[in-house]
Amino acid sequence: MFKRLCDSRVENSGSWLDDEEAYTSWADADAAKARPLLLLLGEKNTGRSTTVSTIVQKLKARYKTPTERSSRVLLAWYFFPSLSDKADKGDPTPARTALKHIALQLAEQDMALAKSIASICEEKDNGTYFTDVSCESLWKDLKLGQPRGDTMYYFIFDGVEKLSKMHADAGTQFFDVLQEASHSSATESDGSRIRLLVSGSGDAVKVLGGFESPTINIAKSNGSDIELYIKREMRKYDIFQGNDSKDEASRKKINDKLLEMAGGSFFKVQSTLDRIKDLVDSGGQESELDDLLTESDWGREAISKNVVAELQEQLSPQNIEEINELLIWVVYGFEWLSVDQLEAALFLRFGSTPLQKLAKKLQGKYSRLFEVDGQVITVRRDLLSLVIKDPKQLRSLDDDTPRITATITITKGDITTVQNFLWALFQKSVVEKFEFEPLAGQITQTKSEIRVNDSDAHLAIVMQAISFLIKKPDARTETLGRYLVWNLPIHLKELNNPERDHKVDNAAKKDIGSMLFDILGQGTIIRRHWKHFVDVPLFGNTTQISTLLAWLQDPDVSGHFGVYQMDWLDKVISSPSPHRTLLSSMAREVGHRWLRSSENDPWEAYRSLRRYLSLEVSEGAADASDDSLVILSTDEESLALDKAERWCKSILQVTDEQSLWYERVGETARKVDEFDHAIAMFLKATKMPGASWTCHRGLAHSYHQAGKLNDACVSQKKALEILYELKEPHPHDIWVTNMDLGKWYFELKERDQATIYYEKALEAKPADEAYYRILEANLTSQSNGRTLDLIETMSHETSTNGGTSLLGSALLLMATDEDTYEKYFTSLLSLTSSRHGMLGMVLSAMDEAIQLAADKELLFERSALRLYKGLALYYYGNEADENPLTSAVRLWEECHSDARKVIEETGTYVQWKWMWLGGQVISDIVCHYFKEATAANTEASALAKLGEITIGHRISYEDNRVSPAESYMGAYETLQGNFTAVRAHFRKNMLTAHEMLSDDTDENDADAYFVLFQCLLHTGDETNALIAFELTGPIEKTIEMRLGEIRGEDKAAATEILEFAKEKFSPNDAAPTRYTAVLDELQRRMDLGNVESEKTITNETYQRLHSLLAQKRPATEDGDGPNQPYEITYSDMVINWRYFCNGNCGGTWDFETDINICKYCWDTPFCQNCLPLLQQGTSKMLACDAGHKWLHVPRWNLRESTGLRDGTVMMGGEIVDGRHVGGQRVKIKEWLSTIWKEWDIE
Q1: What per-residue confidence (pLDDT) applies to 1209?
Q2: Whether 8 and 88 share a structural domain
């Protein structure tokens, strides 16, 4: 919703806020006397929500970049959905939803807070916490009212009056929380550290703030926004946009009159502008314009009624019927329906397709009633109440309709005569409809009223669902199919609402009964419309099942059933588990589709069947040995699969084993990551008569996902062998199978073999991806000459899709691969720079790829290509470009702009790849200016440039780590000897590290030490930087990790103990404490024997687990307790992050080798092989500079680097020949206290 509001905002709107003292004081985080709560009052159509979105944007812009101000600002907001929003109907706890959204946004901006919140959620989540918790508890538990350190929170809530209307109790709770937060914040001695903005209409908002909270009434202040809106809409409608005096006078007259009568309401303005547009389009006169402007001064209700009346008068009867049908779906549908879905609904209703598209009508003659926002279509809010009519009111109107009644009296006549008469009457009245010839001049169509009501709407949707389901799939209505299938039970529940006065007539009930039997009793409907039943909620939703059952138990619904139908219904009702029995026919069809049909993905059917088999079975029935009463609850996937398969065998009465059956079980197992089970099933399938080549392909993929690459290749070759023997194999199957085989050989580092299969794929079907994979194989080989020849050939050949070269297309595919594009582009540029003229070919191909990415709207790929084209120009140059450095920086600026826009719109965790790209781009830009600043040797100009970059080039304010701009700025100050300034520069990062190391969780400690390392490195404190870096190293496996690794016969017991550990302990509990407690629990169970065991877990199993885990018992926290450290190996460690060498090798560093980290650049390490090449200039690198300096970080030694195990480090000493020598071993806390003291942090 926030994005929609931002997109619809008029440019420069909200500028009046800068003149509102109440707002400016509240928005100033340094204003100590500012009141913590600001109220924004506005009725609907005053632009209140849009103004709130403007405030959010203003605050984001103001506080996105850290400055020397005293507090760090985190901003979060929530817009309560409007009463007509579909999301509103599905959210029973909107107040809690708001607080969760706030917490999530805080987490996105603060890494330490994110881990703290994650820890709290894991500790609290017992299955019901987040559904039962009160607003007050949620606020306290998530610590939303406790900003840490010097942080300040800005929380913004819009539309709170909707909350009080929808959920009065929750609204009261929510208001109590906000009142408490504002009052607590107001009494703090250091000023309010929580600022709240609450917007809405009505007395509830006023009561919230009392008399002390500043208040802004939008309707009294938004005149400038309305004027901007009038100008924009007149430009959009092209109304009086000429430069002549007449148009200018008309514009001024309209503007002045609308401003005068608006009273802060955009609705009055929009309604009048719509009418003016219609008047201009129809060639109206100026006098009519004057009359219209006079009428525009009417009240809102009068204007609304006039709009509906004019539509009623102007539209044809057919248009009104169409509008009424749209109202049914737009107002009473349970989801937002797209234009395509609404067109399908109209076809379903009227059986024909109008010449004019619905989208055109919604933008044209229907636009005064409906609003279109992207794919969301709504009724204009001020008109909604006017088109919704109470059914009672409609019946009273219908009672006045003229009627003809007649009574037939038979005085004489035998039975035959009477029967003939009644039959003839029936024929005339029912069949022939008394087809009288119409009188001349009386062929007219009665115009109905624009209206809708809930009872008739729900019934209409149900009847349309019947119409859809009984017919064969039709392309003209298919877009509506999923909605009808998924929501039919919900509409039926609304129709059966006992509070409704309007009842469904018996004829409709009979149709509903017949349809329900067809769906539930026979399975024909699900077979016909299977794709709409995939993942349908009905299979596991007891509320929906109960709704259908209640309908069927109504005598008016099932009274016309035949013997077979009644037998089925009696069986359902008398069943000990009626919910299961009701869906049994459907479930049988799902089971058939899962294991006995190859028409669909088996995983689709299995998902639905799993939900069905999770439905409860009555206690008496559950004890039976019947396989048809299988119950799935929290079973592991392999056990659940086995149970579901046994159920299918029983229900489908399978007696003969078929290859297809085991193939589909195997494919399902593969989809749920049960690879051993999948391999076993596929092996069974391959050994049966008639086994398809797809069995071997499935086996190959299972081997591959299980990490058994050689076995995968053998099975895939067998699949290819069978495939080639087929009479007419599909070229695509051959292409895909060869491509997969090529990729697996590439993973095995057998690049020549990989190339062979890529070339075979090309024989089946020419495709750019195969050429790209051949290029990939060559780029990672040692055959430089062959690779250069290939690149040159690809630059001259046209893509299989035409329009660009093969090389250009391959480079776009290279940019698409997020995991490898950095390494491949680096290798490509380094290699092609070695042969004259080749780099120019690559740069031309990059231009083609950039244009192709733009044509396909691939924004990330275009930005990645720009990044590396910039790097190519910057480090290798270009004969065709006189100023490659300037061109490179321009390309990076374009990348930065795109990355910043995407991240600010979508959030950081959602777009991690953009975070990385944005950081890399900023690093390159700032590095350029850093070089210029240090080369210029002019402190003032250097600081001006770097200062500008520091402020303007930061992706967001969410990352606690040192940013690229901060890295270079700090390094520059250190080089200048300004140590006081550099410490002030990094102070906020150091405070963040202090916060993270002082909180209740140790999960974020490694991140905190890395922040410490960055700050200390760029301030020249190399000794302490090395210590901090050592503390980011690999972590010892926890008890949870070790239990999760156990496989085979002990896996079930390990899973049970793991659940015990999760329930009993918080992640904040010390690792040795958790480990010891698990060992104690195992010992307890061993002592008890099998007494408590409800499952088949034996005492021997617990003994094996205890013995295995006891060998790896960690040391106590101080290292001097009864449990001394065991002899640790690398298999006992978890590498929680890796560094990538910035040289041309493309290698990763994982603590087992030496590394060299630049003291100036942002996150720029080099391995021992690449650094000498950079220093000597023998190989160009796409980062750093030969004149920089590096900190040598030695290999992380398991026996010497003991800090993470026993809590000590070697403090002091010095760096000699790149090694830390000397010093004194002290506790980590003691070392940290010296750092905090030196930085004056308490």
Answers
A1: 84
A2: yes
